[in-house]
Specification:
The chain is of the alpha/beta class. Among the domains are: 124 residues, 3-Layer(aba) Sandwich (MutS, DNA mismatch repair protein, domain I), CATH 3.40.1170.10; 104 residues, Nucleotidyltransferase, domain 5 (2-Layer Sandwich), CATH 3.30.420; 164 residues, no CATH class; 177 residues, P-loop containing nucleotide triphosphate hydrolases (Rossmann fold); 164 residues, no CATH class. It has 35 helices and 31 strands. The chain has a seven-stranded mixed β-sheet. Strands 24, 25, 27, 28, 29, 30 and 31 form a seven-stranded mixed β-sheet that branches. A hairpin with a 2-residue loop joins β14 and β15. The longest helix is centred in the middle third of the chain and has 32 residues. The protein is globular and about 120 Å long. Keywords: ATP-binding, DNA damage, DNA-binding, Nucleotide-binding. InterPro entries: DNA_mismatch_repair_MutS_C (IPR000432), DNA_mismatch_repair_MutS_N (IPR016151), MtDNA_mismatch_repair_MutS (IPR053276), P-loop_NTPase (IPR027417). One of its GO terms (molecular function) is mismatched DNA binding.
């Protein structure tokens, strides 16, 4: 008795393992570790949280309880949902997520780590990072108090958003790995992400018609990287790989919300609204970081720094014209897109998705060489390909996370792992290593092939030790009664997926119960002469009885009983061959939503109940074994995903080579520099025999002239698709000897894609687009511009094309510019070739075009407009200042504020108001007057009133709803200590000292409100923001301060509230005042480079919505 008590006490202790003869036998039989989840008895985490002694731990628990958020104190996101599911799965464990080199803890688990492990949180947020060297100590400290630790991993995978989507995106998902032990290290500790170094940077996310725009803000280096024109997949890939915890996003944008719903690593969010342009938004995001960290100076805009092993995604316009964008688009000659033309028509969906990913995000030069090598070897190798389909990462993640029993998914994983091991061992080492290099670059991980092969073999060993192969399953011989055979197949299906020796006792009990059921049916429902086997022996097992019944039914085919089976009864529809019908009872039941009436026997019913009970016990034991398999596979989840992606790469490249080689396609050479040479290239990749091949040789700037419908757009799109495929290392429909240089940048632009809507004129849109193209062009770039000069009149288009051609020729890039504005500008540009499409000897060529005189030539030569455009383009391209000048929209298009509906008298009144202001406040007053002028509606009952410093409001504004704006002068206290910036910086965000600050508000008693404002003491802008703005999301502020380690910088300007001037307008109702206040703040957001906006949070979280 004392031994039993001692064993029970030991079993209740954490870390107790099965011992003794029976425990060792059980572990050896099932092939699993003897580790079992810690038995924590009745103790829960709530008990520990209620008895905390550390003051900081108690403060964090009280903070979380006040906000009713148990995991973290920011807005809901994917991470919150994943942590909630993890906590539900392991309610008595501390949930630890592995991110890079550190292990992170969130929510109330932070208080337990502070209390028992002596760790400190990151800032005041419920967020804590455990270094790898302190993890064993933390595990042991928690286990001594009966608390376990569940390790969760971020698994990176390429997967589609839904089944019908051909777009692959890079996702990070939180997946259970294992329950931590003090002595075991993490399984994938030495295999980390290539960008796992976590920093305290923040991300700004916006969206406009050109796609997504993401800025990476580094407060330590005071730099910001802006990446524009991104597709959904490339933006999500950037957000997932940077492992950034702070996101500042454009509020109210549905595209941004859809993107952020997929980000699983962010823990702090801040919305910004009212910014129409992406530049203004990123400027406001930098200003938000400055105010939170109390920084001075500005952020230097640096060029996009891409790793040499990082895929550079195509911009949205280039991807769309090839059918690779977010919305599909019009492909080259085929509306299905370029990726479908690079694969056979019967290619599986996963091949099409990966080919689209390869083309939409071309690999770096080293990976392209690997692709070129692999497809060349696959086209010549003698090794047969296996028919192994990769398993979906979603299926793997759902299986591991929920730890549910899914035999089909387990068999899919087994098939994928066997396919990977076959290729890894059968292919030449050079091929398998290069395929692995391609796969890990796609997933942005760092796994070696030998380690992957070891993990795959370990996973196969785990699966093979418990699961039976399909050919090993012992199929039960049919009895000849369809209903009974169907019952046996359904009830014993799960049990048969586990090896027989693991369920010997259960199988024996099920066979015995099935034997008794068959015997009862044979004796009660049929007249079987005798139960003997062919040797004359009496039947004593299930197989012999089954054979006996089948033989009897075959001899009397007309007397086969018509049976109906459900969960409760085996019904006999009609009495035909029953030995004693008096023992049968009439009953009704439901089978498949239908009421069925028949005859049953009490003995048969009892035996059916006994059979189902034995099957349920066997199924439970089989499911337990399968769950142990899933738990054993959990630490290798990332390896399984990579092995599956390895299969995707091999099968896709093999399918591409198998289609291209029989068609005579070739892989063009890829020199570092030189000319672009395509020989007998098939335009638009069309497979038709009657297509005229194209031969072209490009080096420098080529202007493609000709009328509409002459094939210029098809030629440009075809060359674009050919260069993208060559950059990816794929075959092309061209003859041998073709050359496609290694372009570091491929840019496509077409003014025809301008939708004609928005706040910019067609000319301004062309200027902005070409500005972006010229800024990115260099001597290793390929620039393709279609229909340059569209949406412009003849004179503007001619001058504009001349300037663009000249500027691109000066950069030394390889470019094709298609235009139909004529050739008047040929004499005004140099170092450019003018060509047209001609047909010669069955081939299309580019020949030199003649200069055709037009009536516009004389007007062009004597026009001052060319010189004006030349000066504007010089300002854009050869800028020397730190700020890019804005386009003068008053000169070329619509002005920023349309004043056609405002009377001259009202305009004069605003000018009088501005003149009354001090000179230092006039710029801010001009912006406010323009905003009030734009908001002039029926809700504003009077003109804008100017209240000078020291004056009180007039009687017309007393005790009425009013929207007001206070212009506060900024008084310098000494020499400014601005941070020195790099003189070669492209631009600066959130920069400069200002002369005025603006506060916007609404009130029903302006007199009292002004007295309160003017009584405020002198304070710096940072001090004022620290009392107002930084109270919003204090956890984000504390987190950024802790991660960046920056000390506050003293401001050199003071807010002089006593000398402030006020602009006020009377409103109809208080609701109108609140709406006008919010609209006014939204318009001032776009002018924060000229003034300090003190009302950063006012009007944002109003319950009443304001729609402009």
């Amino acid at each position: 008795m004392r031994c039993l008590l001692l064993r029970a006490l030991l079993a209740a202790r954490p870390g107790f393992q099965c011992g003794g003869r029976h425990g060792a036998f059980l572990c050896a039989k099932r092939g699993f570790s003897a580790e079992r989840p810690v038995d924590r008895g009745n103790g829960t985490l709530e008990t520990h949280l209620s008895g905390l002694a550390n003051a900081q731990a108690r403060q964090i628990v009280a903070q979380i309880a006040q906000k009713n958020q148990h995991l973290r104190t920011s807005k809901p996101a994917v991470l919150t949902e994943a942590l909630e599911l993890a906590k539900a799965e392991h309610p008595n464990c501390v949930i630890v997520t592995r991110c890079g080199e550190y292990y992170e803890v969130h929510g109330t688990d932070v208080a337990l780590c502070i209390e028992y492990c002596g760790l400190q949180p990151t800032g005041v947020t419920p967020h804590l990072e455990i270094p790898p060297d302190r993890l064993p100590h933390a595990i042991e400290a928690l286990r001594r108090r009966g608390i376990g630790m569940a390790i969760y991993d971020y698994v990176t995978a390429l997967e589609s958003e839904h089944e019908d989507d051909e777009r692959l995106v890079l996702r990070k998902s939180l997946v259970f790995s294992h329950e931590a032990q003090p002595t075991d290290g993490h399984v994938t500790h030495d295999r980390q992400s290539t960008d796992s170094n976590f920093t305290g940077s923040a991300l700004g996310v916006a969206h406009n018609r050109s796609g997504y725009s993401v800025s990476v803000i580094d407060p330590v280096k005071r730099t910001v990287e802006v990446r524009d024109r991104l597709t959904f997949a490339s933006a999500l890939s950037l957000l997932q790989t940077d492992d950034c915890r702070v996101v500042i996003f454009q509020n109210g944008n549905t595209h941004v919300k859809k993107l952020l719903s997929q980000v699983s690593t962010a823990i702090h969010y801040e919305p910004l609204q009212g910014h129409n342009s992406t530049k203004a938004f990123h400027d406001a995001a930098c200003r938000s970081i400055k105010m939170r960290l109390e920084m001075r100076g500005s952020f230097r805009v640096i060029n996009t720094a891409t790793s040499h092993m990082e895929r550079i995604p195509l911009d949205l316009e280039t991807a769309s014209v090839l059918g690779l964008g977010d919305g599909g688009g019009t492909g080259t000659g085929n509306t299905n897109g370029l990726h479908l033309q690079m694969l056979p028509g019967n290619a599986p969906v996963y091949m099409k998705r990966y080919m689209r990913f390869m083309l939409a995000q071309p690999p770096p030069a080293e990976v392209a060489e690997d692709v070129r090598y692999v497809i060349g070897k696959l086209a010549q190798m003698q090794v047969p390909l296996v028919d192994a389909r990769p398993v979906s990462p979603f299926k793997v993640r759902s299986l591991i996370s929920q730890q549910r029993v899914d035999v089909t998914t387990l068999r899919d994983i087994e098939e994928a792992l066997k396919g990977f091991t076959y290729y890894a061992k059968t292919l030449a080492p050079g091929i398998s290593k290069r395929v692995n290099a391609i796969a890990i670059v796609d997933l942005k991980l760092n796994y070696k092939l030998a380690e992957l092969l070891s993990d795959a073999e370990r996973c196969l060993q785990i699966i093979d030790s418990a699961m039976s192969f399909p050919h090993e399953i012992d199929h039960v011989e049919p009895t000849g009664m369809d209903a009974i055979d169907s019952l046996f197949r359904r009830s014993e299906s799960c049990m048969k997926s586990v090896k027989q020796h693991l369920l010997l006792r259960d199988r024996k009990q099920v066979d015995e119960a099935a034997f008794q059921l068959l015997k009862a049916i044979a004796e009660e429902y049929m007249t079987v002469p005798q139960f003997e086997d062919p040797n004359g022996n009496s039947v004593a097992n299930r197989g012999s009885l089954t054979a006996c019944i089948r033989k009897h039914l075959e001899s009397k085919a007309d007397s086969i009983p018509n049976l109906v089976v459900n969960d409760h009864f085996v019904l006999l529809n009609a009495i035909t061959d029953t030995p004693d019908h008096t023992i049968l009872q009439t009953t009704e039941t439901v089978v498949g939503n239908k009421r069925v009436r028949g005859y049953t026997s009490r003995r048969v019913t009892d035996e059916l109940r006994n059979y189902r009970n034995k099957c349920a016990i066997a199924e439970a034991n089989a499911n337990q074994t399968l769950r142990h398999i899933v738990r054993s596979l959990a630490p290798h989840t990332q390896s399984i995903v990579i092995c599956s992606h390895f299969l995707v790469v091999v099968q896709t490249l093999a399918g591409h080579a198998g289609m291209a080689v029989p068609k005579g396609w070739t892989v063009p050479s890829s020199p570092s520099t030189g000319e672009l040479l395509l020989k007998k290239f098939t335009p638009a990749f069309l497979p038709h025999d009657d297509v005229i091949p194209l031969s072209l040789k490009l080096n420098g700037t080529h202007v493609l002239l000709g009328p509409n419908n002459s094939g210029r757009s098809t030629l440009i799109a075809s060359v674009l698709g050919a260069c993208i495929c060559a950059q990816s290392g794929l075959y092309l429909p061209c003859a041998s000897g073709s050359k496609v240089p290694k372009f570091t940048n491929i840019v496509y632009n077409s003014p025809l894609r301008y939708s004609g809507t928005g706040d910019v004129s067609p000319f301004e849109y062309n200027i902005n687009a070409i500005e972006h193209v010229i800024a990115k062009a260099d001597n290793r770039s390929l620039v393709l511009i279609d229909d340059l000069g569209a949406h412009l009149d003849a004179l503007q288009a001619t001058a504009f094309v001349a300037v663009v051609v000249q500027r691109l020729a000066q950069t030394g890039c390889t470019s094709i510019i298609a235009t139909n504005v004529g050739s008047d500008f040929r004499g005004h540009v140099s170092n450019a070739h003018f060509s047209s499409i001609v047909t010669s000897n069955g081939n299309m060529l580019l020949s030199e075009a003649r200069c055709l005189a037009t009536p516009l030539k004389h007007a062009f030569e004597n026009s001052a407009f060319l010189g004006q455009i030349q000066q504007e383009m010089d300002r854009y391209v050869n800028q020397s200042s730190s700020e890019i000048p804005a386009v003068n929209s008053h000169r070329y298009g619509r002005p920023n504020i349309d004043t056609s509906a405002v009377s001259q008298k009202k305009r004069a009144c605003f000018e009088d108001l501005i003149r009354e202001m001090p000179s230092a406040l006039r710029d801010a007053a001009d912006i406010l007057c323009a905003a009030f002028e734009e908001l002039s509606t029926s809700s504003i009952r009077s003109a804008v009133v100017h209240i000078a410093a020291g004056c009180m409001p007039p009687p017309i504004l007393s005790n009425v709803p009013v929207t007001y704006a206070i212009i506060v002068p900024l008084t310098p206290t000494g020499k400014s200590h601005e941070t020195e910036l790099d003189t070669h910086a492209d631009a600066c965000f959130a920069e400069g000292e200002f002369s005025a600050a603006v506060y916007v508000g609404e009130t029903g008693n302006l007199d009292v409100r002004l007295k309160a404002h003017r009584s405020k003491p002198l304070s710096t802008v940072d001090e004022y923001m620290g009392k107002t703005y930084m109270n919003h999301e204090p956890e984000m502020t504390a987190y950024l301060q802790a991660k960046s380690g920056l000390s506050p910088e003293k401001s050199s300007q003071l807010l002089n509230w006593q000398a402030s001037h006020v602009l006020a307008a009377k409103m109809n109702t208080r609701s109108d005042a609140k709406v006008t206040e919010r609209k006014l703040i939204k318009r001032l957001y776009n002018h924060q480079n000229k003034l300090v906006l003190l009302s950063q949070r006012d009007g944002v979280y109003r319950e009443m919505s304001a729609v402009d």
